[in-house]
Design goal:
By secondary structure, the protein is mainly beta. It has a single domain, classed as Cyclophilin, CATH 2.40.100.20. The chain has 1 helix and 9 strands; from the N terminus they run ββαβββββββ. It is globular and about 35 Å long.
């Protein structure tokens, strides 16, 4: 499941949703497109999304490029650096192109997430 993450006015990254937490990934894919305001925490960008989901296969750590869902904050998370989650997350995918874009994100930037059909 390929997706595109656009930081409006700054650029586009490409990503793929994977099977580490398949139920969570499918739920997110099914509600795309999504739009929200960027929130920054350490080397992570996240946005609140209109989805409630429980922990599936929670992980206390992350790797650069991970896409995750954080149940306590109803948040879609993009880990672009070496920081770790505040608490456990459901990993749902990886950024495959233009991860460095997220270093340029500022609080309040508009983020659009949509499917790629090609």
């Amino acid at each position: 499941m390929k997706i595109e993450i656009e930081v409006v006015g700054k650029g586009v990254a490409k990503a793929v949703l994977d099977h580490r937490n398949p139920e969570t990934a499918d739920k997110i894919y099914d509600i795309l497109p999504l739009e929200g305001e960027a929130i920054k925490w350490q080397e992570e960008v996240y946005l609140t999304i209109p989805m409630v989901s429980a922990y599936e296969n929670p992980s206390p750590s992350s790797e650069k490029g991970d896409l995750s869902y954080w149940p306590p904050g109803y948040a879609f998370c993009i880990f672009y650096g070496d920081s770790q989650p505040a608490s456990e997350v459901n990993h749902i995918g990886k950024v495959t192109e233009n991860l460095e874009l997220f270093k340029e994100v500022e609080e309040g930037d508009s983020i659009l997430i949509k499917t790629i059909t090609t």
